[in-house]
């Protein structure tokens, strides 16, 4: 695919088929992940590619519990009261579907980042893992595979780490379900460029 076609049509795909993903495709996706930049080129990332049915099922159960926790957060509680045809309400319906079916995705990728001794994670910690996460999703899109990024699993982070044997000094930064889409790819709804890109000074449209 053309690079810009990939970038502009890669959107959150939360409704996924259960069909298996070929190993060759997964290797291509994960090879793209490790070509991403990281702070100091330390490459402190790790990626758990989870295909085992029992582990996926258990992760799905934990994720469903985490989803129930998320709905208690004021923002999401408010969205639940919005009209069904509003963009936020539609997003919530899509996210709820993932909450109920995550364990059915044929592949779950857990992107992790090792913490340096004595240093707590900050906003900039993500600079060393989220580019790799985006590479995963872009590579998946190029191969016709749907994905989305979620961090809701962190409401059950201790249980997730125990299930998968993840050390305590490793952060689980993102969970990426992969699968062939039930829906369609396409350009996602976005605010116009003039509202978010500024030229030389804040507020001056690019």
Total count of helical runs of at least 4 residues: 8
On the 0 to 100 scale, the average pLDDT is 94
Biggest sheet strand line-up? 1-2-4-3
The unreliable regions are none
Number of separate structural domains: 1
CATH superfamily placement: NADH Oxidase
Rg, alpha carbons: 18 Å
For the largest beta-sheet, the strand count, sense and barrel status come to:
4 strands, antiparallel
Description:
The protein is of the alpha+beta class. It has a single domain (3-196), classed as NADH Oxidase (3-Layer(aba) Sandwich), CATH 3.40.109. The chain is 40% helix and 13% strand. A 4-stranded antiparallel β-sheet has the order 1-2-4-3. Helix 1 crosses helix 6 (130-142) and helix 3 runs antiparallel to helix 7 (157-164). The longest helix is centred in the first third of the chain and has 18 residues, at 53-70. The chain is globular, with a radius of gyration of 18 Å. The protein starts with a helix and ends in a 10-residue tail after the last helix.
